[in-house]
Amino acid sequence: MNSRSRKLWAQHLSGQSKKSQSIDSSSLLKKQPFVGRIVGIDPSLRGTGLAVLDCKGSTYKLLFSETLKFTPKISSVDCLGKIHQSVADLVDLWKPKHVSCEETIYVQNFKTAQIMGSARGAALSAVSIRGVPVFEYAPLRVKQAVVGFGRASKEQMSLTLSQMLGLGNPLPFDQSDALGLALCHALTWQG
Fold this sequence. Notes:
alpha/beta, about 50% helix, about 20% strand
């Protein structure tokens, strides 16, 4: 709760609220729809998903998606460099207003956490250098916003996105996860 809300609430409880201080609650409920492009990033060392979503009010269009796939023959360091460069090129080309990325998730294996964190850092550093705001979402929140169920499967997520955006065929999972991140941001952003 911000300080103004706390102050108003304290005044209300103490009986000091005045009619002149009343707030039209309907104006608080009005959400400005997101307008612009959002890049969604689902980071992974060997399969980073990327998607560009164009938003015009309540109309959404997938402009681009891809999965950055790297074989085990490519060193981890080279993968990180390629992730950074690919994200930098994507941001330069599509000029998004915001970037939506998956939050760091809990994993029990330290090495896995280190690899995932490195891939995430490579992608987000490319965005940060360009001054584009980054918004992070937990996987459960993305699934809740898009599918309506936080424990939805990857198949459900991909099919729902395909139907919502009229894509025809469902996207590969890495791309649908990236698109889901972008759409989650568009649906939940408070402008």
